[in-house]
Specification:
Distance between the termini: 35 Å
Bound molecules: beta-D-glucopyranose
Largest sheet: 10 strands, mixed
Helix content: 10-25%
Radius of gyration: 28 Å
């Protein structure tokens, strides 16, 4: 079992974050034997005292208020039964409390447009895109700096350098929020980048989500939050002698338009190397011809320390193949649909030579790029050469693509795809004896990478890339197995709550954006309740449960639907979006979600000690259930509409009288046997879990291994490397993304059903596991999962009529093991093996 220790220490769900806000949640994972006690200590400042729960895995800091901009060391000590102890240390830094810096910008009205390089190309004038401003500030530093921190954000995107070296490795920072409500800032430790004497802080700004193109509304395609980018930054130098020097953004900064002629998330990016200003990021550069920056304001209210890991360039892919398709044109296949951009070495060439990179997810019948599904996203990057060899990689855009077409280079040299996503640590692995299912799992993981880009998006390629709430709620359980998404979703939940109306209504997308109906639809808006509840159960952090926000939503629906059948205020009612079969009655579907939201909010109220609210909401949930049964349960085993999603929602959400469940599950199974899967986004995540919970794991497996459309393996057989928006990948080009993760929500069942890792219904943070492998006719499967408590692992295999299972249960947890022959065992933490003979 090994000796007891804590590992994976986190402060507010992040490893050693710079810039925590308020009183952080300090958490750790357990390895080895069960602890009998533990204590957390913060820097001699505060001790948790011996925690009542010996197997605790988190505690909220409750000491004196933290000073701003300070590093706090903390430690967790665990005691084992034999009296030995083990201490593990970590640290966090608090954020900047008071800002003095101003917001600064390059005067947008002083921009000289350069002509679009050639006619018919991306014309920046047509798009109204401005060249990216460069801003610089030279300052003197004395020797003996003990620590230097850069606090920085932008309305738009920024890339900052100190003396030519990149500050931090965040991409597309500060990320996307509703900037009118909240603007995250990043903190970088730049101590090692400082020099004695003259230093230069140099920042390039781009439009990003702030003033660039976002979404698909032709009346408002861009400039959703502002018109031009702005910067705010404070560089704090703490000297060894105790003195401090602060360099802030103000009117002393100098600015000029640089060689990035435009940069846009949807349109792409253009570098004109002829307009480069070499050395501008370094000391000694003469900026006397540059303009002074304009101070646009001092509103610091929306600034908050960034609560999640930034988008990073997480990996690089070499091409699978490069094909010359013309004298100056190459088609590059990266072998993987992804979100990111291309980096290419451009050789010496005549000044003015243009290199153009276009991106697409698929090829058309002639073998060229198929860009029809990008809609108005041009996804085209351009380099205009100044003559010298240069490595070109855009900095302020990203595209969803597998293929890139490069024009303008005769002999293509080094080229890579740079994969970008919010840097959520890997948490799980799943593998089994069927290579096609393993490919499906990889596709799900790539779908998650490609769509966790600051916010959980629907897709990374077309002019959408929005934080659609239903997509996120159906995929969340799968996402939690694949990666540690606690901090990522903590951030996005703030976006969701920022978009909640004072009357209680949740939106369809967060961050809120013009052009998308913000009256939330059933199953979309309910994510404002479903997501916090699931995060609480997975990570154990009660702060996810904002009961006022959740109850506000439930009350809103109730107020407008006094008979408790949700018909009014359904927003654009997307129903069971993209379901291939008969439509589930819209009021049935809506009312099922209304019940689910009331039920989960009642539970959240109970957890947070709001007993009276819990009782009121429980009564409401019961009344909705009664109304649901009265209205939609036509007879035992028969629901209005008779659709798969109808039965799935009713069974998964506990809406039916007990004795009606089995007939309903039988009817569901009949429909599945007859048609294959017929669910859209709102039923797909429930399909296999509900079938196997009702004794039809065989049918769930048949669905999983089915290869005719609609099916998961149909996509795999047709070369998918991500999850498609539609089951069959055949829709009008405007709605046919090849990287939409909703149908990838089967991933939860791969971990939870096939491998068999799940939590007991009332368990939180994996305190009580249910290990119930569903082998189907697979030969083996294994999964690992870094839970909030520690490592869970399941591995099973069949050999010569034997079924062998190995299970690792983390310290402080218990598990009920269900073997395929019906035996059950209750076990404590540690490693366990089981062997049974299979029934024939
Ligand atoms: C998005 C979806 C989203 C939907 C709403 C689409 O355009 O791509 O994933 O949930 O709209 O129905």
């Amino acid at each position: 079992m090994g000796s007891l220790r804590a590992y994976g220490l986190r402060s507010d769900h992040r490893t050693t974050p710079l810039g925590v806000d308020g009183a952080p949640l300090l958490s750790w994972r357990l390895a080895g034997e069960d602890p009998v006690g533990c204590v957390v200590e913060v820097d001699g400042l505060w001790s948790s005292g011996r925690l009542e729960d010996p197997a605790a895995i988190q505690v909220r800091y409750a000491g004196p208020p933290l000073r701003a901009r300070t590093r706090y060391e903390w430690a967790v000590t665990l005691w084992a039964a034999d009296g030995t102890s083990s201490t593990t240390r970590s640290w966090f830094e608090s954020g900047a409390d008071r800002w003095t810096a101003g917001w600064i910008a390059a005067d947008p009205d002083a921009v000289e447009y350069v002509d679009p390089p050639t006619e018919g190309d991306l014309a920046l004038r047509d798009h109204g895109l401005l060249p990216c401003p460069q801003l610089r500030r030279a300052f003197q530093a004395r020797p003996a700096v003990a620590a230097a921190r850069l606090y920085i954000s932008a309305k738009g995107l920024y890339e900052a350098r100190l003396n030519g070296h990149r500050a931090g490795d965040a991409q597309l920072a500060p990320g996307w929020t509703d900037y009118s409500r909240r603007i995250p800032y990043q903190t970088y430790d730049v101590t090692d980048l400082l020099a004695d004497g003259e230093n230069v802080l140099a920042v390039t700004l781009a439009d990003g989500w702030w003033s660039g193109f976002v979404g698909f509304d032709p009346r408002r395609p861009g400039s959703h939050y502002g018109r031009f980018p702005e910067l705010i930054a404070e560089l704090h130098l703490d000297y060894v002698d105790g003195s401090t020097q602060v360099v802030v953004t103000d009117g002393a900064w100098r600015t000029e338009r640089g060689h990035v002629r435009y940069a846009d998330l949807l349109k792409g990016e253009c570098h004109d190397e002829r307009a480069a200003t070499p050395g501008w990021e370094l000391p000694g550069f003469d900026d006397s011809s540059w303009q002074p920056a304009v101070v646009t304001g001092h509103d610091h209210a929306p600034l908050v320390p960034s609560p999640d890991e930034p988008v990073r360039a997480v990996r690089e892919l070499a091409p699978l193949s490069v094909t010359r398709t013309g004298p100056l044109t190459h088609l590059v296949d990266f072998g993987q649909n992804l979100a990111g951009r291309v980096r290419v070495a451009v050789p010496e060439s005549a000044p003015g030579t243009r290199v153009t990179i276009r991106h697409a997810e698929t090829l058309d019948a002639e073998g060229g790029l198929d860009v029809a599904n990008l809609r108005t996203a041009d996804a085209t990057d351009v380099l205009i050469s100044a003559g010298q060899a240069v490595v070109f990689e855009p900095a302020f855009t990203y595209h969803g693509f597998r293929y890139a077409e490069m024009t303008g280079i005769e002999d293509l040299g080094e080229v890579q795809a740079v994969v970008l996503h919010s840097d959520t640590p890997q948490a799980g692995t799943f593998e089994c004896s069927d290579p096609e299912i393993n490919q499906l799992q990889r596709n799900i993981e790539w779908g998650q990478r490609g769509n966790f880009v600051s916010v959980p998006t629907d897709c990374p390629q077309r002019d959408e890339r929005l934080g659609w709430l239903a997509d996120a709620q159906v995929f969340l359980p799968t996402a939690c197995f694949n990666a540690d998404v606690a901090a990522f979703f903590a951030k996005w939940l703030r976006d969701v709550r920022d978009a909640q109306r004072p009357e209680g209504g949740f939106p369809n997308v967060a961050p809120r954006i013009s052009g998308v109906a913000d009256e939330g639809a059933p199953g979309w808006a309910d994510a404002g309740v479903l997501i916090p509840w699931h995060l609480y159960r997975v990570y154990g952090d009660e702060r996810f449960l904002d009961v006022d926000s959740m109850a506000g939503w439930v009350e809103f629906v109730r107020r407008h639907n006094p008979d408790l059948i949700w018909r009014a205020k359904t927003g654009p009612h997307f129903a069971d979006w993209l379901a291939p079969g008969a439509a589930t009655p819209r009021d049935l579907l809506a009312t099922a979600f209304f019940h689910r939201s009331a039920d989960l909010t009642a539970r959240a109220a109970l957890v947070t000690g709001r007993t009276a609210d819990a009782e009121r909401l429980r009564a409401l949930a019961d009344d909705i259930r009664t109304a649901f049964i009265k209205t939609f349960a036509l007879a035992p085993g028969r629901l209005a509409g008779d659709t798969q999603t109808g039965y799935l929602l009713a069974l998964a959400f506990g809406l039916l009288p007990g004795e009606w469940e089995e007939p309903a599950a039988r009817r569901l199974a009949e429909l599945v046997e007859e048609h294959g899967p017929q669910t859209g986004f709102l039923g797909v995540n429930l399909l296999c879990p509900v079938l196997s919970a009702h004794g039809r794991a065989d049918l769930a497996h048949a669905l999983l291994r089915r290869t005719d459309p609609p099916s998961w393996l149909y996509q795999v057989r047709h070369g998918a490397t991500t999850i498609w928006e539609r089951w069959d990948g055949a829709g009008a080009p405007s709605m046919n993304s090849f990287n939409h993760y909703a149908f990838g929500s089967i991933g939860e069942w791969l971990y939870g059903g096939v491998a068999g890792i799940a939590q007991a219904p009332d368990s939180v943070a994996f305190r009580e596991l249910v290990i119930r492998p569903q082998p189907g006719d697979l030969v083996w499967a294994r999964a690992t999962y870094e839970s909030a408590r520690g490592r869970v692992a399941v591995s099973w295999q069949r050999a010569e009529g034997d079924f062998r299972l190995s299970v690792t249960v983390p310290p402080g947890a218990t598990a009920t093991i269900h073997l395929p022959d019906g035996q059950t065992h209750r076990v404590l933490s540690g490693d366990h093996t089981f062997r049974t003979t299979e029934e024939t």
